[in-house]
Structure formats: C-alpha cells, structure tokens
Amino acid sequence: MPGIRACLQTHDMSFLRCTAELWGVNASGRDQQDYARSLAAAITSEVELQDMLASLPQDCLIALADLKQYGGNLPWTIFSRRYGEIRQMGPGKRSREKPHIFPISTAERLWYRALIGRDFIQQDGKLAEVAYVPDEFLPWLPETQQTSRAAMALVAVDPAQVLRQLAWQDRILDDSCTLLAALRRFGEADGLASDTEEQVYWRVLRTLLSALDLIDAKTELPAPAARPFLEMPRGRALPWLVTAWSYSSKFNELRLVPQLLCEGPWRNNPIPPRRYILTQLATLEGNQWYPLQGFIQAVYADNPDFLRQGGDYNAWIIARRSDKALLHGLESWQEVEAPYIRFLITGPLTWLGLVELGWDEDLQTPVYFRKSVWFDALTSGNAELNLPDEDALVAVSADSVLTLTNLTPRIARYQIARFGEWLEVSDKRYRFRLTPASLQAAAKQGLKVRHLVALLRKYAGANLPPSLVAALQRWEAHGREAVLTQAWVLQLSSPEVLRALRESPAASSLGQVLSPVAVLVHPEGIEKVRMALARLGYLSDLESLPR
User: What is the rounded distance in angstroms from the CA atom of residue 236 to the CA atom of residue 152?
Assistant: First the structure.
C-alpha cells in the first residue's frame, strides 16, 4: 500500500493544512509537495499515532481495525458502504463548510486525518479502487477492539423515590447560540447568568465552545467554525457536540470542578478519565434510576486510580477551594475524584443530554441519575437524532419587537440578535426590539439595514409588515425620525419676558420655543431659570418643581 507521504501528496494545500490542524503539528514548505513531505515527517511517529487514536471515537477505531484485519485495505465500495461517504470539496467549499471539524461520516473523519487514503491498486490482474491505511501506520494499529466491560455492581432505585426530575435534552444547542450571539453583539456574556449556579453553567459552556474552536482564543469572539455549527440541523449538531467534547484534550473537567483549585505547571490528559466514566455508564440499564453516591462508590471499588495514578497523587497540586488546603494521596479521593465524578455527571453529561437528574423531597442537590434515551446514540460517534426541524418563523409585532422560539433557525437568531435590543432570553423564547440605538450599534459592527431586511424577509415571511421595512429603510437613509425627551413647559405672561430670559445666563437651559410666550426648559436647568426670572423681577411658581 502507499505510504503516508504518497497519501498526502495527492491532496491540495487546503486539505494538508486541515490535516496538520487535526494532528496539532507544524509543517512548512515552499509548495504543496514540500509541505506534504514536512507534514508526513511530523506525523510518522508511533507516539503521535497513539495520541491520535486516543482522540478518536469508537466507530473510527472499529473502521481502522476492520482495514487491518483485511491487510490494510478494503474495496472502496465496501468501505464506504460500511463507514459512510466522503464529500468532494475544493478549497473554497472546504473553507466554508470545514468538513474536517464537522465530518458527516466515520470515513470523512478518518480521511481528513490522513489515516486512510483512496487509490487504485492491482488485484488479480485488474485495477481496483480501495480504501487503505498508509503503510507506516498499519503496524501500529491495534489488532482488535476491546470487548465490552461487565456491568457495574450498582442497584437501581425505585422510581417512586425520585420526586423531581431534570432533563436538559438539547437545550445546550440553544444556549450555545445565545452565548455566541452575546459575544458577537456585546463582546461579553456576563449578563446571561442570574445566580451562582447559572454562572458555573455559562462559564463551563464558554470554556467548552472555546475548546472546540467555536470561540476564537485570541479575540474571544465567535470563530469561523461557529457558522456551520449554527447551520447544522439539530439532529446532527448535538451528536457532533457530544463527540467533539468526549475526545477533546482542550476541555479539562478537573480544572472546572467548583470545589477544587488546580495550581502549578502540571498537566493532565482529560480524555481517559472522561472516557472511563462514559464506559461505566454504558454498562448501566437504560431507563433505570441509580444513586449518584452509589455510582461514585462503585467507581472507587472498580478503579480508584482512573483520574490520578501513582505519583500523580502528590505531584498534582490540587487544593480545596474553601480553605486552600492541599489534597494529596489516596486519602483525598473523596475530596478530588468524588467531586470530579459528581461534577461530570451533574454538569457536562447533563447539559449535553446524556443523563437526567433526580431529587429527593428535601434536598437541594440531585441524588439520582439515569441515562437519557439518547445516551447510546450520542456516544456511538456517528449518530443522527430525530429532532424537530428549525422551521419556526420570526414573529414581528407592531412596535418592532421580534419574537423567536427555540425552533427558529439558530443561525437566524444569531444574526438577528446583532441588530436588536435584547428584551428576553428564556428556554424557548427570545425577544429583541429594533431601536435607533440598536441599529446604530449594529452599524458600528459593519452591519447594514439591508442585511436585516433580507434576514427578516427570509425568516419572517408573511409576518413581516411592509411598514417596518419602510421604517428601516427610512432610518438607513435619514437616521432617527422620532425622539422622545423629557422637559418642562414654561408659560410666560408676555413675549418680552421670554426675550429677556433668552438673553440671560439661563438661556442654555432653555429648549425649543413653542410660542411667543412658551418655551421648553430642560429638567436640570429649572433652578437656573428660576434664579434668572427672580433677577429680572418676575415671580414664578418654579419653587414647587423638583430641583
């Protein structure tokens, strides 16, 4: 079979840069051939390959084991039938759709990592098109996939004990859109949380989107990859999010546990403990409630070293957040590993729709959990859920308020939110008001009213009043057409008094002249006008007004 260099040299520079990004290596070259040679040298290493394999979902490992079982290649028709298609794209489309980040199949995930190639070889005197593993990688691939683990020794609880339940379902898709929209509109998202618990949620979500390169690390604004994510159907977006999280080395749950402080230069790989917990959960029965503390104790009995091993117990500097006390040794397990498991289950696993939580009557924190009906599909690595289409129209009121639901296309909400004043952000409803100030803020970000009109025509349809379109177009042409201000009307006895007042030092406190004997007075200038009238010898009842 061809080697890795030959495999890479069949691809253009756009593809090669995607591959280098996925491997996390640096490559360089004067041209495509030089770059391919540099990239091949950087990734042809058993250590690099094992790190890459550790980051792959199970379906990819099965596909590679399948290829190895047949000597490193399979007929392309058979391979694509088993593991999905690979879309044909040039550099432009690849840049827009980012298939290396948003693959639609197992085959496409392997393809952009250059773990498989596609070529014609001689078989039985005939040319045959095959999928193959580059020669250098083949000996380093595992022979077979590990068999399933035995179920944990954990007893389910009576459903009658669960008095309150929480199922997050696919809400994280809507909240991700809200967070990205807030960052784009305001440059920050601090106003989304109303209490400490919500602050933890939004902080973790922001960390997750950054780890998945949906938020730019330098600018802290939505990255180019955010658009295809927001455009993805819900049934594909949630599985993509779960798979990307489960194999992300950038997202580190240990450093997000609220009770813990992780300090110092030590580093941990977050993937193995995360995968271990997912593997243990997979052995549990579906639709059965389990005690959370019982699961923690079962992990302690099965594999207490799943997070820290050997010297890690003393080398990792972990402190209790409440009093900064250092937590060393196996004796600290209940204060490190136990909170880690509890946070993982009640936090990311719940928010990603993998588990549901249950409460006793009098407890503030959840004590039970169960796998969601989506758990198996979401952890299979190549699922598509049957979720509702995002086809709800934008509702437009007479007072320029736009109302969207969680089934309005997320990309529409992300874009419309940049033009409006935010009135409401809830689980299933989002309201924005179009005002001169909000349109001006959008203009400062380079957005045009014609962009907004095009969005509303596309996503509001018949709900879009022609009068609003006309008002928006007039605003773009002329600016603000109506201004509401607060002022007092000063009624005088004669035009001479008004002339004298306008020639006094209090003239700056006067507003528009309404008639020869009436003028507006700015609220903050009432005292100046009263004193000016007194100096001119005129009595007034301005004493009764607020100063």
Answer: 31
